[in-house]
Structure formats: C-alpha cells, structure tokens
Amino acid sequence: MTRPMSFGNRPASAYGRGVWGIWAFVRLAGVVVMTGRLSYPQTDLDVMRYWGWASAVQAGHLPWSSFPLEYPPGILPFLALPGGQFGYELQFIVLALAADGIVLAMLRRRSARGLGQWVWLVAPIALGTTFWLRLDVFVAAALVGFIVAIQARRWRTAGLCLAYATLLKLWPLVLLVVVWRLIPASGRRQVCSWCVGLIAAFTVPVLAWGGSAGLVSMLRYQGGRGLEVESVAAYPVMLAWKFGHHASPAFAHDSIEFAVAGLAAHLAAAALPCALLLVVGLVWRDNGSRVTIASATLLVAVTVLIASKTMSPQYLVWILALISVAVCDDTARGRRSTWALAVLSIAATALTQAIYPWHWMNLVLFAQTSGIVLLTLRLALLVAVTVLAGWHAFGRRQNAPVPPVPPVTTSTPTLSTPTLSATYIA
Q1: Burial degree of 366 (CB within 10 A; 0-12, 13-18, 19+)
Q2: Does residue 412 register a pLDDT over 70?
C-alpha cells in the first residue's frame, strides 16, 4: 500500500484541508463584513460605480460611446452582470472570491507547502475588504496565471492571461517586452499572438460601435492624473502642504490628488517610463541567468507601484499575489531575504489599511500627524519591498552541488565515453 506524502508529521491531505479551511474562514469573515453584518468603514464605492455603468449598459447605452469610462475594455464582462445594486455587489463578491480561490489553487500546485500560499491567505486580513471590492483581484489572478502558464509551457493560456490583465490595467502589456527573452523561443510567437488576439477581440467591437473617441479619452484621462496623495511622488508635496507651503489636495480623477505643474509635473510623468526602461535593460542584460519569470514580473509590478503618480490601496492586491508566487520557491534565494520580502509586504499592506479607510479623512483633509506618520512608514516599507524584489531577481543564487565525476575505467575503453556521457545526461 502506498503511503500518502507527508510534511513533517502531518499528511499532505490534512495539510491541504487545513489551508483551505483557513482560506474559507477568512473569506467568510470578509463576506460578513462586506454585507454589513459587522461595522466597518464603507469601501464599496467602486463597486457602486461599476453597477451604475452596468445599469447604463442594460438601459441601452454603449460604453465609451454614450458615456465615458476610465477603464479599458476588460471591464465589459462586469458591465453585463444583471440585478439591482445589492444583487450586483453580491455577484461581484462571488466572482472576486472565485478569483481569490483560483490564485490559492495555483499557488498550491506550484508549492504545496510554500510560504507564498500563507502570504495570500493573510493578505485580505492585512488589506481589508478593499481586497475583494476592486477589479485588482482579477488582475492578480491573471498575472499569477501568466507566470504559472509560462512555467508549464502553456503558451496560449499565458497569452490569454496577460491579455486580460492588460485589458483591465494597461501596464501588464509591458511584461511582454520585459520577459521576452525569458520565454523560450518556441513559445514567444504563440504568447504574443494569443495576447494580441484577445485584446483585439475586446477592442474591435468597441471601435465598431463608435467608441474610439472614448478609448482615446480614457488614455488621456489616465495620463492627465495628478499626484495621488498616497504615492511616493506626492510625499514631498504632502509634507509641504503639512507645513503650509503648498495648496491642499483636491478630488479629481476619482481620487484625492495634488495638482503640480512645471518641472515637477514633467519629472513625475517621466519617472515611470524611465524606471521601466531600466528594468527592461537589467532583465535583458541578465538574459535569464539569475532572473526568473516570477521575479521579473514582481519587479515590474513594484516599479509601477513606486514610480507611478498613483498608488491606490487596491494595487497591493497584485503586489501580494506576485510576491506569493515569487517566494514559493524559497530555496532559490536565501531564506532570510525571502521571509523579509513576505513580512515587509504584509506590514506595508496592514499600514495601507490603517490609512484607508481608517485614517483617510484625517490624512487628506487635515494632514494630521498620525496620518503622516502612517504614510511615511508605509512608503518606507514599500521602497524596502522594491529593493528586496530587485535582490530577489538579481541576487546571487545559492551554489548548486556539483555532481561527482564518475571514474573512467581502462578495461573497456570502447564503453567509457558513452558511460560518461550517459552519466552526465542522467
């Protein structure tokens, strides 16, 4: 009789049931909070906006043509959800939980007892209900699917996952350039073609019903953002406002932003493309000798987070998902740095929840010292996570053991060379 694989003294099946039990308990608690059974600040404003857009579509209006949208065409499936406000929000939560569970399943297939699954299990506790009440959990699932599919050499799935992440957030398309040389030559064309094909399948109908101007307006809308108060770029401006040297932030682009002009505006706009070009150069120079698909994707994501003019709380969802994948194989780098990456990311996420929603008004309306301190600690931790992500990508691997050289016998010289070659091949 074959004995089940075990981890320590616990059977693998019991360990897996325990992991899924914790996942179900944490998610059930989240549903209780999201449905208003427990007191918690309101964080479902974005879902209410999605419902408003869905109602307009069901009334016969065409998105990007009859009314503007700030999202790319990947939001279309969510505009097809029926029902009133409560029914729509409930369906959205169910879909978010499904994406959440798919991420955990992929992490467990990658490493049945890895650190990454525990990062993902506690992520909603650290971030709060924002974890499920935004589109970013679907972006996270698509990015994890992209990494897992590349490693499994499933090029079609990888291309489709990358395409859908792009259709929701735009920036994931950069990954096609960053990891191009990390993808085996046999799969590059397939990944690219499937990615472009799905993007076209979503975009062409929008163009057909006259939404081209709306799509261009969406791109201008994103490019015209100011400095969101939580971003790294806005931190000096926040301090200047605190001490009376800058105008207060204002509501714009559905967020609280500082308006900047002149050199500051140009520097803020140039920071992200310059940072991404640097990442592309480093990854291409490494050419897969140290960096992996997972670590490169994580590095791109944290670069977008740090160098962008916006840094909304929900962005931490895809950061945590990618960290979960990157730390699954905790033997590739030193265990100390791997644990540091996981712990610092969770700590930064917990501070993010402390700011939004708990200290949000104190920060954006009054610049109270408590909010400034929390923001300072959060940004410092996120910068540290970015540095650790770079180390995880380009740090020196542990030296693999050198296989022993088999002895060469002289009694059968005609068989020595094939025997040696077979040993090395094996």
Answers
A1: exposed
A2: no
